[in-house]
User: Fold F-box domain-containing protein from Gymnopus androsaceus JB14.
Amino acid sequence: WREIALNTPTIWSTLFFENSSHIERGRAFLERCSPRGSNPPELCSGYLLDIIIATVPFNPKTVQNDDTFISKRELEKIFDLLVPVTVRWRSFYLRVRDNHCKKVARVALGGTCGRAPNLEVLQLYHSFFEDDNNVDDLIEATFQEPVICFANDVPRLRHLSLIGVNLPWAHSPYLEGLDTVELALHPDKIRPSYEYWDKLLRRSPDLRKLILHYSGPRERWDQDSLTYAWQGDDLWRSDLPSDRILLEKLEHLSLTDMDAPYLARILDRIHLPNVQRLVLELS
Assistant:
C-alpha cells in the first residue's frame, strides 16, 4: 500500500504551509507528485497543485509560540520551492499579516512566478486589518502601487478572492469570465474605479457568487479623473452603458459593512433575476 500511495500523485498534490516545519514536508510532497519524464509541466494535467500558505495560522488559539509562524525568510524558501512549478498551480491561497511577508509575496507574484496557465482559484488575504496598527503602517499596507500578477497570463482563472489586497485594475485583463468574486476590506483609494468594476461584471456573465465586504467600486469614474460615476442620489453619468449589468446566473450575493446609499447606487445598475441566497450585514 505504501508503494501504491507513493506512486499516486494526486494524494500529494495539496501543499499546505502554516509553520516552518511544513517546508520540508512540502518539498517531499512536491517530489512525489512531480511528473516523470520530460513532458513540459503545463501539459501534465494530472499533476496540478493546490497551494495554501498561511503566515498567520487559521486558528491562532492553537498556537502557543510565535516562533512557529512563517517568517519572511521562510516565506522566501517556500516561494523558492514553488516558483519553478508555477505553471502547475491549480489553486493558490495566500494569507499574510506583516508587511515584510507581503513584500516577499509582491516580488514573487509580480515577477519571479511568471505565468500561471492552469490557475483556476486565487485568494490573496492580507490580515493587517485584524490587528491594531498605527496610521503609518496602514498607509504602507494599503497605498503601495499594486503589482501585475503572473505576467497577466491567467487564462483559466474562475474564482477570485481579494481581502485587504488590490490589483492594478486597469492592467489585469484576466479579470473576466469569473464564476466567483470576493472583494473585502478595501479603503476607497485602492478600490477599482467604476469603469473597471463595470467591465469586470459585464465580462463575467456566468458569475454565480459575489461577495462584497467593505469594498466595491470607487465613486470616481476612472483612476485619474476627478469625475464621478454618479452625482447625487440618482443622477448617473450620461456616458455609462445604457443597459444595466445582467448577471443572470448569479445565485449567491453577500453584502457586509457597506453604506446603504452607496450600496443602493451600485445595485441600481445590476439586474439579478435569479439570486437564491442573499446575505446582508450592513453598517
About this structure: The two ends are 55 Å apart (CA to CA). Residues 99-112 form the longest helix (14 residues).
